[in-house]
Design brief:
357 residues, 14 strands, Aspartate Aminotransferase, domain 1, 7-stranded mixed β-sheet, alpha/beta, Aspartate Aminotransferase, domain 2, 3-stranded antiparallel β-sheet
Length: 357
């Protein structure tokens, strides 16, 4: 058995993989593959509409929100959001809580003024700063709800009347929240939502002011809204897998069940790391992510030994992000508790072996 702890592209439910494979051979008994169907045919239009409906239903979004499925990954959203909503002389509020927040800030600075309300780089982003001031005059407030690389997660969101924008790439559909508090949510699908290749944007079109800047059609949200997410050929297969994944989440019990499982999985791993002196969790307890658990070893030499043992036990994706190092396990919705138990057992074994040396 493979234990898939990859941070993204990441594990998918087995039933979703089976349905997707069947769709590649013969989609809905059409005699065509999902890879072959026309995107403006009723066959795909039903997939797209179902996927959009599921986003609203799972997140309990107001009906006037628009759901878009776009190209370019969450990274393109770093520039598309300020291009659409940040006028040249206006200001947006950003939080720098890690690599992806920093990248979003850098892109926004090309379009207007950026006020960084909080910056966790003083402690290598191992915590979420709690002391910050939000301007009352800003175009929007941007956060990264879960920091995949650094292993932190927002558990209390900024209280603001400004439009709140969140990159939820790595914790979308993993917990119950009042998602209507967010004026725009975006995520790359390749973690909790499906396969790589599509980006979901849920947006309240009433929340943002009109700006003076001309916007290219492919980067203009309103153009995509007007064209029903089919301004050009959408990533058909990725949207299909996203639809199947959201159907699976709904069938499993929705976000209440996903959240309960996420807490159970992460608690098991954090309890082991806290109890075993060979391993050091690096994130402040109150800000620990339920999705991405980051840790190091007491002796740097043990890290490579631990990664070797992971490989022997068919555990993939445990090595930390390339610019950060250390170890990281990602516990997304589809991960089985059997894999979590196998990891915890290995942590105990390695702790005993390392401390004997």
């Amino acid at each position: 058995m493979m234990h898939n702890f990859n941070s993204g592209p990441s594990i998918l439910p087995a039933s979703v993989l089976q349905q997707a494979a069947a769709g590649i051979q013969n989609f809905n008994n059409s005699g065509l593959s999902i890879l072959e169907i026309g995107h403006r045919t009723p066959l795909f239009e039903e997939v797209l509409h179902t996927a959009q409906t599921l986003v609203k239903r799972l997140l309990n979004l107001p009906q006037h929100y628009e759901v878009l499925f776009l190209h370019g990954g969450a990274t393109t959203q770093f520039l598309q959001i300020p291009m659409n909503f940040l006028d040249t002389h206006a200001t947006a509020v950003y939080f720098n809580n890690g690599i992806w927040g920093k990248k979003a800030i850098e892109q926004a600075q090309a379009f207007g003024n950026v006020y960084v309300a909080a910056d966790g780089s003083d402690k290598k982003h191992a915590y979420i700063p709690k002391n910050y001031t939000l301007s009352k005059q800003a175009a929007y407030v941007h956060i990264t709800s879960n920091n995949t690389v650094e292993g932190t997660q927002w558990h209390q969101f900024p209280d603001t009347d400004l439009p709140l924008v969140a990159d939820m790439s790595s914790d979308i559909f993993s917990r119950q929240l009042d998602y209507s508090k967010f004026s725009l949510i975006y995520c790359g699908a390749q973690k909790n939502m499906g396969a790589a290749g599509v980006t979901m944007v849920a947006i309240d079109p009433q929340a943002f002011p009109t700006i003076s800047r001309p916007i290219p059609a492919m980067l203009h949200y309103q153009t995509h809204i007007n064209n029903g997410s089919m301004l050009n050929t959408p990533p058909v297969f990725a949207v299909y897998v996203a639809m199947l994944t959201m159907q699976w989440i709904q069938q499993e019990g929705g976000l209440a069940v996903m959240e309960q499982r996420a807490i159970e999985r992460s608690t098991k791993v954090y309890q082991a790391l806290d109890a075993l002196p060979a391993f050091i969790p690096t994130v402040a307890k109150e800000d620990r992510s339920h999705m991405n658990i980051v840790f190091t070893t007491q002796n740097p030499a043990w890290e490579e030994l631990f990664l070797q043992r992971c490989k022997q036990e068919n555990m993939v994706g445990v090595k930390g992000y390339r610019t950060v190092g250390g170890c990281r396990v990602s516990l997304y919705n589809a991960i089985d508790m059997q894999s979590v138990d196998a990891l915890v057992n290995l942590l105990h074994q390695c702790n005993d072996d390392f401390l004997k040396k």
